[in-house]
Amino acid sequence: MDLLGSIMKSMEKPPTVDTKEKLRQKKAQEVYIKQQNKEKARMIQFRNETEKKVTSFVQDDHQTRLKFPTLNKVLRNIVHEIAEDAGMLAYSFGEEEVDRYIMIFKKDSPPSEDELNALRNGQEWNDDIAKRLSEQREQVKIEEMLDEEKRMMLKRTNQDKPKYNYKEKFQHLVGLEAAEQAARKTETNKSYGFVPSENKKDQRSIEQTLADIREKKRLKIENDNSQNQSLKTD
Question: According to the UniProt record, where is the region Disordered (predicted)?
Fold first, then answer.
């Protein structure tokens, strides 16, 4: 090496700490941008594939549900947007960051509450399960109707029963024996309800019947008194 080269080399300065940090940051920025572009390209590809899948689903008259595999929240949002644009319904099921997935439904075949509850609970759902639950629900309705009918019949039966005891009501007025006769006449029968058929035939009211009973008792008492008086006289 000549003298001039040695002098020039000795004058060169090594890179400073600031320069090294700037180079590191620049390299990191380039890596970040590269990753961002790669992620962006992946999103675009996923959106294009999802749009094709949803379009095929819409055109297939034999499908009413389209289930996607486990997806993160960002990808599920893309599916939601595409489904909404296509006029579909979209629901997510499963545990976040574990097995969360999304399923879309055609609006003319929306999910029932039974189906949604089953999927939310991680349970299987198919036509056989839907039929079985429908039959069970119909059976419950029938049982409820029968229970209500029984309740109404019992209520009507209770309403048809006298709300008080005629024998106790009139015992103090006409005596025990007469009250029992009145009670028997006013018990419910199949033809006329509370008023017996005999009362209906002669068109007498309960009050008139009791009045007749009281009159008979009065005559009986007078007759007994007369007989007693005759016995004393003899």
Answer: 1-24, 185-205
Distances in whole angstroms, Cα of residue 160 to Cα of each of 74, 187, 215: 70, 10, 31
Tokens of 234: 């003899």
| Euclidean distance between CA atoms 26 and 141, whole angstroms | 72
**What is the number of other CB atoms lying within 10 angstroms of the CB of residue 115?**
19
DSSP summary character for residue 30: H
CB-based contact 116:91 (threshold 8 Å): yes
Question: Quick one: how far is CA 36 from the chain centroid?
Answer: 48
Strand positions, DSSP E, the chain: 65-67, 89-93, 101-105
**Residue 90's beta-bridge partner residues?**
104
Instruction: Give the span between the Cα atoms of 175 and 169, in whole angstroms.
Output: 10
Could you count the other beta carbons within 10 Å of the beta carbon of residue 104? Answer: 23
Secondary structure tally for the chain: helices H, strands E: 9, 3
Q: Which residues contact 198 (CB under 8 A, 6 or more apart)?
A: 185
Are the beta carbons of 194 and 186 closer than 8 angstroms?
A: yes
Q: Kindly report, residue by residue over 72-98, the tens digit of the pLDDT.
A: 999 999 999 999 999 999 999 999 989
Q: What is d(CA 32, CA 52) in angstroms, rounded to the nearest whole number?
A: 30
